[in-house]
């Protein structure tokens, strides 16, 4: 109700004023980036350097959409009758319910909220139960930036209440839009709830990213990209590689170099320790899933090249793990692990690799390494994903459209396309002229 009541005044503000307040919010985030980063590390264990990177990335969405707020253009369409004029207006959809995950507790909020507020919408944010403090900290800075009361609202809740609160957000008639980042299974439940009142929805759901290394690849660059793509946030990102497909000609060299890089460059530890690159997994359930995938793979003939068990630090810490002799029948190549496990499948032909990559029912990100220009075009176009990294393991950027195909979701976030998710198109016909 607070968001609904604040919506009319916020939506009528000149775009320049909304832009200025979003810009001020961005500046306050940058001024407080060290404290905000420490909150993330304390909440989810992410290494402090990664948390600092997330805050800069997170703030950049407020900067980007502050600028996009002033570029919401309509159209004048040539009419078919002489006495008519045809206009197209873009208007805010209304109250947007924003449901976000724990793995990027700041960036997943600003990527949605920046676009929503720029468009003139108000928001109700339900952060993940594991990481409510980042959302509340953003709220404090929003107040300081002059964002009016009721425009940015946060509703933290316990794990026990999550399903009930999510249902209210998706069914209440005052909510016009749902934006969710999380698992495909939860996304489907929210879609069913939203269908009752035919709400606008954006869904950024699970991934199962393939990482293909062709014989023509620069192996050292591929290993560097693999390390970044797989082990960022201890493998707990939706665009993390989940399946490595390596062509037989360079398979052994890649596995050997990848194992050495893992052992040399990755350090498991407390997120506040400067040398740590791998923090803990989010909870016990996450660790158990990694263990289950490894046990299943080994029982079917996979080999542990490095890692393979809980780290000596105990609790939710797990060793960065590399498996070889992996097949498509193993759980780790059929499900998203969301942990520090890299399974390597050997393949022979390009067609075989593309077929394996596209066999999943999801398609968020995909990566491949090749120095053959014709192959690059073919594979980039054939991969059934929303985002492709060619000779690059880290692809997220505020300027670029983020989202997937198939069961990886609906809509796009970030980029010039992200604001469209929060706008309705209204056609106005002037007659009798």
Short description:
This protein has helices at residues 2-12, 15-31, 33-44, 48-68, 107-119, 132-144, 162-171, 184-195, 219-231, 251-265, 284-299, 350-357, 373-382, and strands at residues 75-77, 85-92, 95-99, 122-126, 152-154, 175-181, 200-204, 209-213, 241-247, 303-306, 321-324, 341-347, 362-363, 365-369, 387-390, 405-406, 409-410, 423-430.
Structure characterization notes:
The chain has 433 residues and is of the alpha/beta class. It folds into two domains: 1-205 and 408-431, Aldehyde Dehydrogenase, Chain A, domain 1 (3-Layer(aba) Sandwich), CATH 3.40.605.10; 209-390, Aldehyde Dehydrogenase, Chain A, domain 2. Helices cover 39% and strands 20% of the residues. It contains 13 helices and 18 strands. The protein has helices at 2-12, 15-31, 33-44, 48-68, 107-119, 132-144, 162-171, 184-195, 219-231, 251-265, 284-299, 350-357, 373-382, and strands at 75-77, 85-92, 95-99, 122-126, 152-154, 175-181, 200-204, 209-213, 241-247, 303-306, 321-324, 341-347, 362-363, 365-369, 387-390, 405-406, 409-410, 423-430. A seven-stranded mixed beta sheet has the order 10-11-12-9-8-14-15, sandwiched between helices. A six-stranded mixed beta sheet has the order 5-4-3-6-7-17, sandwiched between helices. It has a three-stranded antiparallel beta sheet with strand order 1-2-18, with no helix packed on it. Helix 13 (373-382) links the parallel strand 14 and strand 15 (387-390). Helix 2 (15-31) runs antiparallel to helix 5 (107-119). It is globular, with a radius of gyration of 23 Å. The two termini are 41 Å apart. The mean pLDDT is 97. It catalyses: succinate semialdehyde + NAD(+) + H2O = succinate + NADH + 2 H(+). Residues 2-428 form the Aldehyde dehydrogenase domain. InterPro entries: Ald_DH/histidinol_DH (IPR016161), Ald_DH_C (IPR016163), Ald_DH_CS_CYS (IPR016160), Ald_DH_N (IPR016162), Aldehyde_DH_dom (IPR015590), Aldehyde_DH_Superfamily (IPR050740), Succ_semiAld_DH (IPR010102). It is found in: Mitochondrion. Keywords: Disulfide bond, Mitochondrion, NAD, Oxidoreductase, Phosphoprotein, Transit peptide.
